C-alpha cells in the first residue's frame, strides 16, 4: 500500500466536518481490504523459488515467480480497479514475465558511505527477444517493509507496473529503499541521497544480471508514484549528473519538495486532506534522526504521548492503526505549527534541503497530478514545471498533466497507461 500517504495519507486539517473525515477513513479501510485480496491473489501465482545465482560482479539473483498472461491481465482488469478504486482501461499483457529478487551491494551516503546490502526486483519478459527497453520504477511508502518491489506478491503498485510494462515487453526494475525488503538497515523515508543510491546501484545490478542472461537493453525510462515520484525526480538528477541518458521520466502525485509537503498540512490544511498523513511526520522524523545522526530528533517532533507508538510504526512493530491520531495537532508538538519555528528547526532544515527540482532538467518529464488528490496538492504537483518554466525564457522539458478529478490512488492508476503510451512513443 502506498503511503507517501499509504494510498490516502493526509491529516484532518479541518476537523469541523467529522463526518467527512470518518467517511474518508472508511474509504481507506475499504481500500486496504481490497489490497489484501489482491496480495492473496498474486501470492497464488508464485513459482517455486530457486537458489540464488551469483554473477561475476558479486550481485546475486533468485527466481521468485512467473506470472502468465492470464494472471497479468487479471491484475489489469480485476485486481487493480479494486485496490485503486477506479476503472481504468489498460492495454492487455501479451507475454508472461519471470520475476527475480536481486541482492546487491550499496553504500549509505549519509553515513560516510557505509557499505550495505540491498534488494530489488528484476522482471523479465518471457519472449524470444534479446533486447528490451527498461522501466525503473521507484515505489511509494508502505506499511510493511515487504510491500515493496522485490516482494511483488505483497505490492499492488508493483503488480500494476509489472502487468502494464513487463507484460508488454519492458524489463522492469525496482529498488527497495534502504531499510525495506530484505535490508537490515533502518528505513530511510525521504532520505534523498540514499534513495538515489539505492536506485542507481539497483540499475547497475540489474544490468549485471541481464548481461549474465545474455540480454541487452535499449531505451531507459523511470517512473514513480507518491514518495516514489519524489524518488524518481531525485534519481533523474543523479543520472543526469553522471551523463546517463534517460529517454523519459514520469511521476504520479509526486511531491518534489518535502518541506512544501510537510508545511502544507501544518500551515495550510485543506478540507480534503487525508486523515492518515501524520505517518509522513512519523516516518520522516525517525528516518532523518537515523540517517543524519541526530539523536532525539524524532522525540523533538512527536508529542510525548505518542512517541512510543510512533517508534513502533517506524520500526514496523505490531501496533493498532486506529491508535494513530487523525488530528495532527495531537501527534506533533505545537511549536511546529509556527512556520518560523518549523523552518529554523533541525527537522525543518533537513526537509527544506530535501528537494528534487532545482537544477536544469535535460530529460523530457511528465508529472501527472489529480485535481482531487488528498495528499499532494495541485500546486505542489505542478511545482517542477512551474520552477523550470520560470527560469529565464523557460525550460519546457517538464510538463505537468492533469488526470482530472482523481484522488491519490486514482491518479496513479490513471497515469500508468499514460506513462506507457508516452514511453512507447519516445
Automatic annotation (TrEMBL):
Residues 162-237 form the Peptidase S9 prolyl oligopeptidase catalytic domain. The chain crosses the membrane at residues 25-45. It comes from the Bacteria. The keyword NAD does not apply. Pfam families: Peptidase_S9 (PF00326). Keywords: Membrane, Transmembrane, Transmembrane helix. PANTHER family: LIPASE 5, PTHR34853. This is Pimeloyl-ACP methyl ester carboxylesterase.
